[in-house]
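Supplementary Text 2. Reproducibility record for the structural model of the 349-residue chain.

All settings were left at their defaults, and a single model was retained for analysis rather than an ensemble. We include the record here because the model underlies the residue-level annotations in Supplementary Table 4.
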Amino acid sequence: QSGKIYLSNIVLLCASLFFYAWGGVLYFLILLFVIILNFLLTIAMSRYRPYRKIIFIFILIIDLGNLLYFKYFNFFIDNVQNAGRYFGAEILTNISTVALPIGISFYTFQIISYVVDVFSEKVEVQKDFIKLALYVTMFPQLIAGPIVRYKDVNKEIAKRNIKLSDVETGIKRFIIGFFKKVFIANTMGNMADTVFGMDGSFNTLYAWMGAICYALQIYYDFSAYSDMAIGIGRMLGFHFNENFDFPYKSKDIQEFWRRWHISLSSWFRDYVYIPLGGNRKGKKRMYLNLFIVWMLTGLWHGASWNFVLWGLYFGILIIIEKAFLLFWLSRAPRWMRHVYTIILLLIGW
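Retained model, structure tokens:
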């Protein structure tokens, strides 16, 4: 049985690497380099305990530095150039743009969660390169999520029993996701693009239709990919956690973010918000931590000031809710709370 699983892991790893390499050999080499480096350094961190903290910090610098360079280098250069033009100077004009590797945000967060959990001794270090590489590169969720944590799948990587019922459930889930993407998300996207392409010549009814269609497009598009990833994973014997829980029925912004992109929200909670102190160091520190987390959440979604402002928009809303608004919302009728949430979400989108 163990030999069968090992062979299965090799086949799945090769398929995942081939899938990723199809998007570009350079991206593939970067991914492979990151996996090898993290594999060797986490083993060193567990073996040389007096230096484990130094090695841990070094790993984080490498992983985050890799993400910062490929995802935010162009953003940094653009802002430096714009600042220079503001003061009448042309600077850094001969800098080449950096191409963004596919799925780098997702696989970087997965690797970091593994490194942090090994450092905090929540999981044992993985000494089998095939198993760690498979965890990072598993193709169903490699480029679009959900963000899978090592502690949630390490046992299934080592030992899993694929039943016919799992394959059936996985196929059904994949078909649901495929339907949501092709027939709902794409249709809503076409309608939203039509309205936004009218260059301001639409009336109020068209404006609302465009905003609502866009909100539906975002949900059905992203949740569809999560459905398909969960479905394929189930066919292969893996039980990925849910990533969406009917978010548009939320009655406040905090509840919405507990239901939307759950794997990302919980990642920032466990690996950024709580280490910063969470809500354990007073309200002012809690508000500061929320502000930092949501600024980073915006940046994670995209390297532009629009995304930073978008993240801060939701962060400020959550701070206001925690400060006083939830007290009053809890006394309002359910429908009023729902309308409040939907309107703020539409503005955010």
